[in-house]
Specification:
single chain, 316 residues, alpha+beta, ten-stranded mixed sheet, three-stranded antiparallel sheet, 13 strands, globular
Length: 316
């Protein structure tokens, strides 16, 4: 399938004391932590003296120069499937999709097919970047299964690296619209916390002690007051798993319909009657520099019908 791709990475002293896998994930930007762990286990990441890193959990002791040998992409385990896609933009380097709620982004336990990756493999006919490994070709970032809205995928490795660097540098413009319980007071603000996976429930992300987990920053403002609820805009300064959902719940305003972070409240019966069974969250805006041309691209997506109907039902 082609030659190995070799990259040199310098990890500075600012990562001293961190685990190798965490420091590398932060420094590289376009490889998931699980992918980094796998590469370390396979001896594909080596020190300047040619010796492999001992293990993923060993601690950084100072500035290091590392060589990463990325094996050539293998045929994706996921199979192409003719799933309709709402394409907002496409060129030779990337594709921007307006994802519907309910569509899983990439194959995982319990979702072996019927995902966005399966759809992209069919739509792009073998033109997806292989950097992400066999499970998630082309995927640079993701949004939750039951969150709707904009997502970008890379068709080649150069585009994947360029986009991943922008996500790592938090230079991507990402705006979400959400319908939350209660009315935020004050109506706008900044939420800054550390987030980590819950040891009690691995599906949940929790607010962690300072310095534990990953720093997450969300800027929110109320767009419209509703009946014991509000439509809010959330602008991401970072992009962590479940960030908007956790941060708004942390402020006392969980997203309506959220099965993980929501709560029973005055809207529960109405949501059930409407058949609204997901978090009321939509990835409204996505903006970034084209990784090849350098041109600024920006895309907007209106809230889907179910959120529009919920908004209308709660309007006052």
């Amino acid at each position: 399938m082609g030659d190995d791709h070799i990259r040199t990475v310098i990890i500075d002293d600012g990562h001293r004391g961190q685990r190798f896998d965490r420091a590398l994930t932060d420094a590289v930007g376009d490889l998931s932590r699980e992918r980094v762990k796998s590469l370390i286990a396979n001896g594909a990441i080596r020190r300047e003296d040619g010796l492999p890193l001992p293990n993923a959990s060993a601690k950084m002791e100072g500035t290091m120069v590392l060589t990463i040998t990325l094996p050539p992409p293998v045929d994706a385990a996921a199979q192409p499937q003719a799933i309709a896609l709402d394409i907002c933009y496409e060129d030779d380097a990337l594709v921007v999709v307006n994802k519907p709620a309910g569509l899983v982004v990439h194959p995982a336990n319990g979702h072996g097919d019927g995902t966005l990756v399966n759809a992209l493999l069919h739509h792009c006919a073998g033109q997806l970047s292989g950097i992400g490994g066999v499970a998630r070709p082309g995927i640079v970032h993701r949004i939750d299964k039951d969150t709707s809205g904009l997502i970008v995928a890379a068709k080649n490795d150069a585009a994947h690296i360029g986009l991943a660097q922008q996500f790592a540098q938090h230079s991507i413009d990402r705006i979400y619209h959400a319908i939350v319980a209660g009315v935020p007071v004050p109506p706008a603000g900044r939420v800054e916390t550390w987030l980590a996976r819950s040891p009690q429930n691995r599906q949940k992300i929790t607010v962690a002690a300072t310095g534990s987990g990953k720093l997450a920053i969300t800027h929110f403002r109320m767009l419209q007051r509703l009946d014991r609820a509000a439509m809010v805009e959330c602008r991401l300064e970072t992009g962590r798993t479940h960030q908007v959902r956790v941060h708004m719940a942390h402020r006392g305003h969980p997203l309506l319909g959220d099965p993980l972070y929501g709560r029973q409240g005055p809207h529960s019966a109405r949501l059930r009657a409407m058949g609204f069974h997901r978090q009321a969250l939509h990835a409204r805006h996505l903006g970034f520099m084209h990784p090849i041309s350098g041109k600024k691209l920006a895309f907007d997506s209106d809230c889907p019908d179910d959120m529009q109907q919920l908004f209308t039902a709660l309007a006052i």
